[in-house]
Amino acid sequence: MSVLSSVLALGCALLVHQAASDDKAVSYSGYQVWTITTRSNEESQLVLNLRQLYGLDVWQWQEFQSADAPTDLLVPPQLIKELKLKLNEANISYVVKIEDLQSDINDENPKANSSSFDTKAAHKMDWISYHRLDDIYGYLNYLAATYPNLVELINIGTSYENRSLYLVRISNATAPDSQPAVWIDGGFHAREWISPALATYIIKQIVEEPANAKLLNNIDWYIMPVANPDGYEYSHVRSRLWRKTRSLTTSARCLGVDPNRNFDFKWGGSGSSSNPCSQVFKGSKAFSEVETLAYSKFIISKSKQIKLYLTLHSYGQKLLIPWGYDREYPSNFADMLALGNCAASKFKIFKYGVGNKVDLLYRAAGNSADWAKSIGIDYVYTVELPTRGFVVPASSITPIVQDFFPAIDVFATKIATLKV
Questions:
Q1: Signal peptide span per the entry (predicted)?
Q2: Which domain holds residue 293?
Q3: Exposure of 339 in the CB half-sphere (CA atoms within 13 A)
């Protein structure tokens, strides 16, 4: 197949990826994920050129690469033969990380359609399977009804497709907004299902486990499990790899904006795109998305109270510290690094890297963590959870969330000492 034919074929594949029909889910049958390891700047540049030429979906990469920094690429079946040839000609090593992505998707969430659920139970949440938005919101409503003196369900607005934007406030304070607070969110990128799973697990541990009562001492918690509900639902029913929101754009075939490039701090800079078909499309303007606008308004209303900001993503096993718009460092970077290292020391199964976002990953202007730092929140981290990709078997949920939770105690111990 010629380069031109390959590009045209890939264009058709990406068109399907961008917008599934109303009655048929996108199939990733035959798609593979390759991990490519380069040994020089020349090899890294060649891989970058191939990515750009074929418009490949990059799952993981590092902008300022070390000699052995891996790049994970999603390879459509019609390009497998040609890309193998290109890499072999350049003597660049790679391994096939996922042989058939659709097989992994089929096996990811086996209990999702199980008929064994107890219909008499008060809610459907567990942490051995991934849950749709209704289950997650049902659990939040259950907690608010069951623990009214502890949990408040807050609706901060509606999404583009008219879904509620829910978060919970967890507090035993007698006076509102009188204590330092922690903000945690998940589900910014729709396909990163492990992040809402962790966010809801943290909620459960704080609210329902008596052994964690100390986490309520002198701290309020604001936790939003799904910041992008439209995209999250779409990733469940139409396209498993959907990342963005679901708003209309200037392109009839490419919907949605990357919400993590849509914030009004260094918006439109490096690591974002003005192309509506890009996975990192920044939107027509900062806060063009109703989801990011509502989110930002709420956080601003609590910005004097919120002292720690954790936004949960996948994947990479990293605690990332601003700034992400360029290779720059906030004035309290050393303090954030020390707290991040202390938190990471609690992980037993997975080893996390801790450091500046650009040093450990790449530039991403307009991201939510940079914005949170820019409005004065003291401690700000983007968490990249430890998975092998975006499609993570449900059996991995419990090990990942249980391993992470002890870090919450480290963060809480620090934040409880701060003044509002």
A1: 1-21
A2: 133-415
A3: 22
Which tens digits make up the pLDDT trace of 24-38? 899 999 999 999 998
For residue 290, what is the domain's CATH number? 3.40.630.10
Task: Give a yes or no: residue 409 inside a domain.
Answer: yes
Q: What is the four-CA torsion angle of 196, 418, 344, 205, rounded to 10 degrees?
A: -40
51/143 same-domain check? no
Per the listing, tokens 């303007």 go with: 285
Average pLDDT over residues 365-392: 97
How many domains, in total, are found in the chain?
A: 2
What region does 204 belong to: left with phi over 0, alpha with psi -120 to 50, or beta?
A: alpha
Q: Note the pTM of the prediction, 2 decimals.
A: 0.93
Q: Which residues have C-beta within 8 Å of that of residue 335, sequence separation ≥ 6? A: 379
> Is beta strand 93-98 parallel, antiparallel or unpaired with respect to 32-37?
antiparallel
Which residue is it, tokens 């992400």? 324
- Residues serving a catalytic function are 384
Helix extents (H) in 19-89? 41-54, 80-89
Same domain, 161 and 82: no
Instruction: For residue 122, tell me if it sits in a domain.
Output: no
Cα–Cα separations (whole angstroms), residue 272 to 228, 232, 322, 364: 18, 21, 16, 6
Say whether 270 sits in a helix, a strand or coil: coil
Q: Are residues 171 and 86 both part of a single domain?
A: no
Place of tokens 């910041």: 227
- Same domain? 47 vs 173: no
Contacts 24+ apart (CB under 8 A), 82-88: 82/1, 82/3, 82/6, 83/34, 83/50, 83/54, 86/50, 87/36, 87/50
How far is residue 391's CA from residue 373's CA, in Å, rounded to a whole number?
Answer: 30
The pLDDT tens digits of the residues spanning 3-52 come to 333 333 444 444 445 454 456 899 999 999 999 998 888 888 899 899 98
User: Which residues are 354's β-sheet partners?
Assistant: 319
